[in-house]
Structure formats: C-alpha cells, structure tokens
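Because discrete structure vocabularies remain unfamiliar, it helps to consider an illustrative case, giving the amino acid sequence and backbone structure tokens:
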Amino acid sequence: MTAFTGVAAGDATQQSAIFWTRVESNSSLMNQEGGRPRIKNGAVRRRNASGQTSTAIPLILEIATDEQFRNVIARKDVKTDPARDHIAKTEVDGLSPGTDYFYRWKYSTPILTMLGMISGLRGRDPEDWMPSNFGVVLSSLDEPNPTMRTTIDPRSRTMISRVGRLSTTPERQADVAVRFGHSGDADGLFAPYLAMQNLVEQDFDFFFNNGDTIYETASDLSPAVSASELAVRGEITQNRLLQDYYTKYRETHQPVSELIDGNTNPFPSLSDFYAAQGNFTTWDNHETGNRQLQSGGAPASLAALPETQGGRPRGGSSQTSDDVNTSGRYVNQLPSFRTIQQAFIDYQPIDPPLIDAPDDPRSHGTRQLYNARQWGRHALAINLDTRSYRDARLYLPDQRSDDSGERADNPARTMLGATQLAWLKQTLLDGQANGTTWTVISTSVPIDQVAPPGAFIEASGAAAADNPDFYNLNLFDDGKGWFGGYRSERDEILRFIADNNIRNVVFLASDQHLVRVNEVRYAPDPANPQQMQQLPGVFSMVTGPMGAGGPDVITDHSYANIEQISDFIADTQRELGVDPLGLDPAYPGLHDVWRAGNPDADIDRSPADFHSPDTFNYAAFAIGTDGVLDVELLGIPSYLPNTFPGTEAFTPEPILSFSITPDLS
C-alpha cells in the first residue's frame, strides 16, 4: 500500500486554489509497530473496520514556483479527516494571477523503525525491498522523485507525496494564450485508463474533468455499489452507501496491482492525470448511481422506488405527471443524494459553497457545483452542473419510440434549475462585456441536435436489426440529454446566445463514449420548436471516454472502417433532416483539418474526419494570442473490459485535429 493515494488541485482563481490528497494510514510504513495497535500518551489508537486509523494524521502542504521546491512560497498544516476516508483538503489564498505552481504533501511524524530499516539496507537496490510505488532518498545528493506517489526521505524524517502542478487564472484582460483539456467517463472495467498517461507533457493550464469520474457498476476491481433506493428506504445505512462510493473513487488513483491478487501492473490509474494540472470537475449519472438519484430536481418520491414500478424504471419516468416537479420536494434534498454527493466532493479538488436562493426551493441550500473562470482576454471557461437540479429523465419504454418529443418541448422542464440558468446567462453577458474571444461551456451531456431514436433506428433498417452492438454506434438521444429530454431549455439558452450576438462559443460534453464534432442548430421561435436553423459561430464537441464501454465493440480501427460507420450515420441523419455528423466543409474560419489515416482530410472534411467511435481519448485545446483555436484529439485504440493492460501496450497518439479562426466582427 502507498502512504499517499494521490494528489490533486483545482477550482483555481487568480489568488486561490483547492489542494487535495489522501493517506493510506494502514500502510505498513505509516504503522511503525508493524500492524500492532500504536500507543501514544497512554492511549491505544484503534483502527476502524477498513483498517484505517480513527486518528487524524498531520500533514504539511508545500507550494513552490519550481518543481525542485527551492522557492517555497507557502506551507500549511492540514490534517486528514478520518470521517472522510482520511482525505486532506484545503484552500490556499495569497497566490498570484497567471502563475504556475508546484505542490506536494509531507508526512513528518517520526518513523524511526522504518528509518532504521533503511539505514541497514543502504547500498542495496531499493527495488529488492521497496514496493514499486515507493521511492527512497538514500544519498544527500538525491532528490525526491516527483512522479513517485510516495518517497521516503530519511534526511528530514518525512514521507513525501508526488509533485502536482497547478496554474492560477490570469487577470481578466491579460493577453495570454491558454491550453486546456477535456474528457470524461472512467469505468473501472477499463482501468488503468491508459489514454490519460503522459498528460504532464501537455502543459495544460487546466482540464475539464467532465463527469462519470467513477462508475457505480461492478468490475474485477470491486463489486457494484449498493442500490441507492435501499438507503432511501432505510434498508442500508448512509455510511454503507458512502463507503461503497469511496471504494470506487479510491480505485481511480490505485494501481490494478493493489486491487487484484497476482496482477503486477503498477501504473497508478488516474493518479498521473490528477497531478498533471488543475481541474474543473463536474459529475454525471454514474456518480449519482445511474438510478433515480441521477435527477436532483425530480420528485423525491421517485427515489425510493424499486428498479421498475408503474412506468418509472430506474433513472427516469414514462409518466407525464412526473415531467415537471411541482411537489416542492426534490431528490436533491434527500439524505441519500447528499451522501453520494459528499463522496464526490470529498474525492475531488473542489469545495463548493451553499446556494442562497430562497425564492428557488429546487436550488436553495444545495452545493454549487457549477462555476466559471475568465482566463484572460481570450477564454471564458464555464463548467455546468446538469445533475443536481434536472427534472426526471424522460424514459422511453423500449428505447425505440419517439414519445419524448412534446414532453421534451415542455417549457416548464429544466435541466439547470432557475438559479443556475440565470447565472449562466449573466456569465455569458459578463464574458461578452470583457471582450472574450472564445466562450467554452462544459456540460456533462451533449447539446447538439441528434435524431430521435425511433426514427433513427427505423431509417437504419437492417444495420440496427442485425447488429447487437448498434446502440454503441448510434447518434441519437434516449431521453437523458438536452435534445431528447430538455429541449425547450436548450433552445432558450441557444436563443439567448443568438439574440445577444455572442459568437465563438464551444459546447463541450462527454457521456456518450465517442467523439463527434457538429454545428449547433436551434429553434429561433419557441412556438415552433420543430423549425431548426444553425446558430452562427457556435459548435459542439463530444469527447472521451477516458475508458468506458462502447468503443471496445469496434475491433477494426482502420480509417476505412471508421469512414464507413461515419458515412452511414451521416447519411441516415440527412434522411431524417438532422444536421449530419461533422463540421460543414465551409464552416467559417475552419482550416488545417487533419485525420489519422486520411491524408486528404483538409480537402475532404468528411464525417469521419470529425468522428472517433473506437478510441479512449481526451481533447486538447489551445487558444493563441491571435485568437485562433487549435483542437487536437489524442488517444489509444479501445481495449476489452477487465483486461487492465500496461503502459507498454499503448501510447496516446493524435487521432484528429483542426483549427478555427474566430469571428471578431
């Protein structure tokens, strides 16, 4: 076991950021008595059922302007919280705008027995006696390894975490370039998420960690979490639910070798990713259990229902009476919702404040997971919460019907809630007033127009009937996304952008386990929601997954196969009157289109040049001081679930890229 599970930082402002770590206090190196109860001041330190000590562990957070920590600008004492899975988290103020910082954590309680062991082993190869995830400083000339999750330093009698990196936001009018990343969806079935290795080389200013940061389902790493309705009904305790989710979050930082007997894969899953840059993080349906708690604004009465009852299966409702919650009681007010939300908050570098909105009972007293940062003149980064306030998902009984149409156009339905929607509109206006070049909106579910499922499947004919994996290749909305379930509010947001002439807007999403780039269409007239037109200066990109099901069903990764899939989808969409997959070849400002396997991509600009349904990946975005937006998708071919390959098997490579010159008129 490692002493430090991992490090992370996020939610940076010009002067502050949140810093996070977790300690494995049942590590043999944390327990100098070799597993016996430790006695201090005459009192026995007892361990809880999971093996963790019930005593807070004192740590020191160090922040420097250099990776060697020769210029330490802040030190802060922080204790782990035994009630929060021995997580330590703190906000640090007094930082400088537009500055790169490096940080690490230290455990400085004396560990004399361990030091004596090291003293007796000097001169021997540490690989013979140290765990693979530990480093050790044996010479006065050595420096701690910044990438090792824990390094032992006898000179200072400390154990030191790996080094993390964070950038603070620049001043609002600073004429600076910005680099950031985006992806989501990390299912334990596809650990250790090899698409996300080497992110430190990207030198990102920040990363949108865009939801489904864990999956509640079973893998060879651990069983599925307890069903949330059991906690709602009191059949299991809230603590049981909390611990189940903690297990899933812990796994995203741990090597597979720590979780499966006989496995020797030492790659520490997403630990490298979390350390590589500061993050802005949101959640989606899997952090909320993918059952009735996934819709925080739905009637609270739905949360206690079993998996299927009266047209209300897990995760939604086919009953029109549930479409708009007028009960005054919301899922997000339930203890079980707040339990699983707490697990998410505990394991992310965030500290969301409480919302004070007494006129909006759906939002009042909830944790504000949405935020925005102005990153100099050229970028406004907006991070939405699409789970905490949404009305019930519109369930489609057989996933093949189109009965969500009128229901999705109900103007009383909401995904964001009144308070967040008003905040979003004002944030967009503030960015426009700042002269922002690009506005980037990260939303956990896609906002682009897609085909209704029934029509898409019917038009697809034999391809749908004969292919059991068809649902992994599709581009339709089954009721949980903006277009399939919350279309009226979607069009309200897009009309606001159009009416205020806000240009150069990018909507980013994950969730659908594929990559696609599209223009964005909307209904200018709310009385005629079926009449759609393109919104100028706005496009959408769906990214990911980091590692999740869907891409793994495609085993032929050749460009010819992807082109065939992409053309089939685009042709079917055209038949249905839906804007087809990919950017229009004449999209204003588009240039330098590149696609692996297609040397003529900038000439063709075909659907496959903007589509990747077979990879695990992330997108890298760069905005220069000239305002040009460069987009690059990097990733690896998908692999099968529960195979847990090592880094020697895959190295992330470029998949596609393009650039857009902004409209500054």
Summary: Confidence is low (pLDDT under 50) at residues 30-49, 126-130. The longest strand covers residues 533-542.
